[in-house]
Design goal:
The chain is α/β, with parallel strands linked by helices. The protein is 25% helix and 22% strand. The chain has a ten-stranded mixed beta sheet, with helices on both faces. Strand 5, helix 6 and strand 6 form a beta-alpha-beta unit. It is globular, with a radius of gyration of 19 Å.
Length: 264
C-alpha cells in the first residue's frame, strides 16, 4: 500500500509507511491513519464517519451487494474502521441484503479498545422504521454486546416487543415511525457512543448527508466498471447546495484508491 496524499516526505531518513516499496501496512499503521479526532476541551463530541465503496462509474453494489466490487485491502480497512468505532450504524435493508452478523472482538485491538474506554467490540445499531427484521438471527440473539434498534416513537409495539424479547435494545430516535439522523446521533452519544461509523446502505448515508450530520467519508474507489442501474453510495433526499468536503488522505493498492474526506 502506498500513501499518495499527504505526499510523503522522501527526504526523511525513515521512509513513511507504505513508501516506495508499497508493502502491506500493519493493522496498527492503518489504525493510526484512520484515528478518530482527539477530544476537544469540552470532551469527546460525536463524530459520524461513513465507509463506502464505489466503482469508477458510481455503482455502490453489484448484484445487490458491495463485496463483488471490494478487495482484500478494502476489507482490511473495513475491519480497522470497525475496530476503532464505538458503534456501527446500518440500515435495515443492508442488514437483510448483506447478512449482517454481530461484530467480533479482535485480539489485535483489545488493548487499544480497553485504553480508549471501549467495549470488546463495537455495538451494531440498526436503523429501521418498520422493524421488519428477522429477530432470530445471531445479530440479535447472540451478539458480544447487545444490538441496538433505532426507530421512531410510532413504531409497531408488537415489533418493538419482538426486538426486545430477542435481546435487542430499542432506542427511540424520531417521531412517527421514521428515524431522525440528528436525533439518532445524539441518542447514541447519550449512550456513550461518540465514535460512530455507518456502512450504509445508500439510503441511510443519503439521509445523514441531507441532515448535515456526516462528519467524514471514507470512500474506496474500485477500478471497475459495472454499468447497469446500481445505486450510488448515497441516495434519498437531496440537499439544497452540494456539501463540500476536504481531502485528508489517500492510499493506493492494486489500483484501488482509499480516500478519506472530512467536513470543511
Amino acid at each position: 500500500m502506498r500513501r499518495l496524499f499527504p505526499v510523503p516526505d522522501v527526504t526523511e531518513e525513515t521512509v513513511a509507511p507504505g513508501g516506495a516499496d508499497g508493502r502491506e501496512w500493519t493493522l496498527a499503521e492503518l489504525a493510526a491513519a484512520y484515528a478518530y479526532p482527539e477530544p476537544g476541551p469540552g470532551g469527546r463530541e460525536p463524530w459520524l464517519r461513513g465507509n463506502m465503496v464505489s466503482t469508477l462509474d458510481g455503482a455502490a453494489q453489484h448484484d445487490g451487494r458491495s463485496q463483488p466490487i471490494s478487495c482484500p485491502a478494502d476489507m482490511r480497512i473495513f475491519g480497522v474502521l470497525r475496530a476503532l468505532a464505538d458503534v456501527v450504524v446500518v440500515g435495515a435493508e443492508t442488514v437483510r441484503r448483506e447478512g449482517y452478523r454481530p461484530a467480533r472482538a479482535r485480539a489485535e485491538f483489545a488493548a487499544a479498545r480497553e485504553a480508549a474506554g471501549q467495549g470488546p467490540a463495537p455495538v451494531i445499531a440498526v436503523v429501521t422504521a418498520s422493524l421488519d427484521l428477522d429477530f432470530s438471527l445471531p445479530l440479535f440473539t447472540s451478539p458480544l454486546v447487545p444490538t441496538l434498534v433505532l426507530t421512531g416513537a410510532g413504531a409497531d409495539p408488537d415489533r418493538v416487543a419482538a426486538a426486545e424479547r430477542a435481546g435487542a435494545r430499542v432506542v427511540v430516535a424520531g417521531e412517527g415511525t421514521a428515524v431522525d439522523p440528528a436525533r439518532a446521533v445524539r441518542a447514541l452519544a447519550d449512550l456513550g457512543h461518540t465514535r460512530l461509523l455507518t456502512e450504509g446502505g445508500p439510503r441511510l448515508l443519503g439521509q445523514t448527508v441531507a441532515a448535515g450530520v456526516l462528519d467524514e467519508l471514507c470512500l474506496t474507489l474500485s477500478p471497475m466498471l459495472t454499468a447497469g442501474d446500481a445505486q450510488r453510495i448515497a441516495g434519498g433526499p437531496s440537499v439544497t447546495l452540494p456539501r463540500r468536503l476536504t481531502l485528508k488522505s489517500m492510499l493506493e493498492e492494486d489500483g484501488f484508491l482509499f480516500t478519506r474526506y472530512q467536513r470543511a
